Amino acid sequence: FGVCLLLNAIGGAATPEEHLMGYVGFYLCEALFGSFGWAAYLIPLIFVNLAIFWRRYCEERLVAVELILSVLLMVMISAVIHVGVCTTDESIAKVYHPATLYRTGAVFESGGVIGGVVGNLLYTGLRLPGTVVLAIVVLPLILMMLVGVTPAYVFGKLRSAIKAWREKTVEEKAL
Questions:
Q1: Which stretches within 53-150 are classed as H helix?
Q2: Which listed residue, 8, 14, 18, 175, has the most CB atoms within 10 A of its CB?
Q3: 95: phi > 0 → left, psi -120 to 50 → alpha, else beta; which?
Q4: Which of the residue ranges 82-96, 97-111, 120-134, 159-173 would you say has the lowest mean pLDDT?
């Protein structure tokens, strides 16, 4: 997937004959971008994460949870991209037709079908500021859970770093 997406970005083919990976690569990229827009570039990173932590996920019986979190991450990022890109043009933001969302996602003008539907729902319910706030809260939490870090661990590390910085600052002022 990663090579296919990378070659699509490099080649920028408009037809299967021009695509660097041929028909399969062209239609695979079109399906992924039509579904998720720019967020499709995260699929290889998600696969790498699953491959690195696969043994731990199997031992702790977390494979299904990690897959759900990965899909949720893709959907949220795709929806945020859709809202960010399409709210400047109210006519696109109001489009709920899957064919239009697919077509605009494939050419990076929306979040694709999945991101478009979720993004339109978020935009309708929360508008741009609410969607941004929701993304700022939810996306880091999903990322932390994907890599196995709890919010308490992150806050503890931040607290100890701030404490060390304060102590260092006090020592420097004392000199």
A1: 54-59, 63-86, 90-93, 98-106, 112-146
A2: 8
A3: beta
A4: 82-96
